[in-house]
């Protein structure tokens, strides 16, 4: 075989190898593009009043940080973890926090209006004076949480666990507590016009000074497990048992 023939064959082999390499690289790039690569987003330090509205932060971790006054309007925070962090006054309007967890976190004065919080795990969390109007907290774990003076008008606490929670002086107009666990909860001085208590558990709950006059699906059997005082307002025909006293209040 002549030298020119060998040269032609070598050139052809090199060309084919190059094309195959390019094809393999293209296939690998396509596979990487199609494959969802999970990312772990972690936050720490200070981010006071920072702007994170609309951000996709699924599974993000906020560890010992200060996000006071931050804007997270409409943010995707599904499965996020808020541990030992300060979100006082933060704006989480319409944020998606389904399945999120909060431990040792502060959300006082925060705005959760219209937020999706179903399945939230927030035992002992401080929500004092927070705006929860229209928020969905269905099946939330809120044992011992501080909900003093919250605005939770139209919120859903359906099947939520509020054992030992403090709901005193809050606004719960048309809120749903259907099948909610309110054992040993403090409802003192809170207002519940048109709130739904169907099959809610009120064992040892304090209703002192609570306005339940227009509450729906509240039964005498439920009230017999709770306690009330002279300032408690109840639906017509129902009565409350005094806390540590005798007789009944109507």
Please describe the topology of this protein.
Layout: H1 3-34, E1 42-43, E2 61-63, E3 81-83, E4 101-103, H2 220-223
Parallel strand pairs: 1-2, 2-3, 3-4
Question: What is the compact description of this entry?
Answer:
The protein has 2 helices and 4 strands, in the order αββββα. By secondary structure, it is largely without helices or strands.
Number of strands: 4
Terminal CA distance = 113 Å
* Number of helical segments with 4 or more residues: 2
Element pattern in H and E? HEEEEH
Shape: elongated
Give the percentage of residues in beta strands.
under 5%
Name the helicity range.
Answer: 10-25%
Task: Outline the structure in words.
This protein is low in regular secondary structure and 250 residues long. It is built from two helices and four strands; from the N terminus they run αββββα. The chain has a four-stranded parallel beta sheet with strand order 1-2-3-4, with no helix packed on it.
């Amino acid at each position: 075989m002549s030298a020119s023939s060998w040269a032609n064959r070598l050139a052809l082999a090199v060309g084919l190898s190059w094309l195959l390499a390019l094809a393999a690289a293209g296939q690998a790039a396509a596979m990487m593009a199609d494959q969802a690569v999970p990312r772990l987003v972690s936050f720490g330090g200070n981010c006071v009043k920072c702007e994170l509205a609309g951000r996709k932060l699924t599974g993000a971790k906020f560890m010992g940080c200060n996000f006071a006054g931050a804007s997270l309007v409409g943010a995707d925070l599904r499965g996020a973890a808020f541990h030992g962090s300060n979100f006082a006054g933060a704006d989480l309007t319409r944020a998606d926090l389904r399945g999120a967890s909060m431990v040792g976190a502060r959300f006082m004065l925060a705005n959760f209006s219209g937020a999706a919080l179903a399945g939230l795990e927030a035992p002992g969390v401080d929500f004092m004076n927070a705006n929860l109007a229209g928020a969905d907290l269905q099946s939330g774990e809120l044992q011992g949480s501080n909900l003093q003076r919250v605005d939770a008008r139209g919120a859903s606490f359906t099947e939520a666990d509020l054992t030992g929670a403090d709901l005193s002086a809050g606004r719960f107009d048309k809120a749903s507590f259907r099948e909610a666990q309110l054992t040993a909860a403090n409802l003192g001085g809170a207002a519940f016009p048109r709130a739904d208590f169907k099959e809610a558990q009120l064992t040892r709950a304090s209703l002192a000074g609570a306005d339940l006059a227009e509450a729906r699906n509240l039964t005498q059997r439920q009230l017999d497990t709770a306690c009330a005082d002279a300032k408690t307002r109840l639906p017509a025909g129902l009565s409350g048992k005094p806390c540590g006293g005798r007789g009944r209040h109507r």
